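Folding follows sequence. Below is one example:
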Amino acid sequence: MSLNEQNQSCALCHAYLFAEDDVVYCPECGAPHHRECYNKLNKCALEELHGTENQYDKLKKAAEDKQANEESKQFETAETDYETPFGMLSPIDFLGGVKPEDEIDNGVTANEAAKFVVSNTMRYIPKFKKLNKYNKASWNFLAFLLPSGWFFSRKMYLNGIITGAIEIIATLLTVPFQLTCYNLGLSGMMFEPQTLQKMAENMDKFPPIILYVAFIGSILSIVISIVVGILGDYLYKKHAVNTIREIKEKSENKETDFRKKGGVNIFMFLIGVMAVQYIPAIIVSLIG
């Protein structure tokens, strides 16, 4: 016997109706019957319900509407559940409104980028989607404040070394000026009114070359912070896309390599920040 695909039963005997059964339907309410059952009564078995709220077709429509509403609610719930970079479902959209299958660049999807970025994906994935080779500008405040430290934290070590070296050079250029200030007793906070007043009174005691070099160092420090703050997101996207493509092409365990080469390295972040702060002092002490 074939399956009862429509899940209908005879209105009189209540037996399931199958595809091979001879079925007739009430012309008024549409209730299904075996032909034999209908002929036995010569009328609809549910005739007494005609014209009422319990009429077969009305009940059937109400049941269908209820099922449709439940399916709609399930669909809406599914739409608000998002996959985290760790594969779990969460009501929070960790992709910042970007669809998981959307391409970020060069065949890399938003979901793959999120697995690589791991931390703060709600910010970075939409940024990656917007940035391209014709639009490299963005703004990353942490990259502006701590350029080399931010590069190291995101495992862009070559960028971190280059940026850190520039930051150290910029600091070293200001050291002669700072030592002169110290020797003149101008050891307060640089921008305190009292310190600025004393500095103006003793400006003739500063060799011009020291002022020029300190000015260059200060400008260099500001420029590197601004450049990394503006281009940091673009450089990170480029690093992420290239690394992900390499992992997809060569790795035997992609998920493990995503975690190893992506994410955040707090230890290297601290190393980068401390190196920029203390290496200039170490160099000066060794020279002195």
In short: Residues 131-287 form one domain.
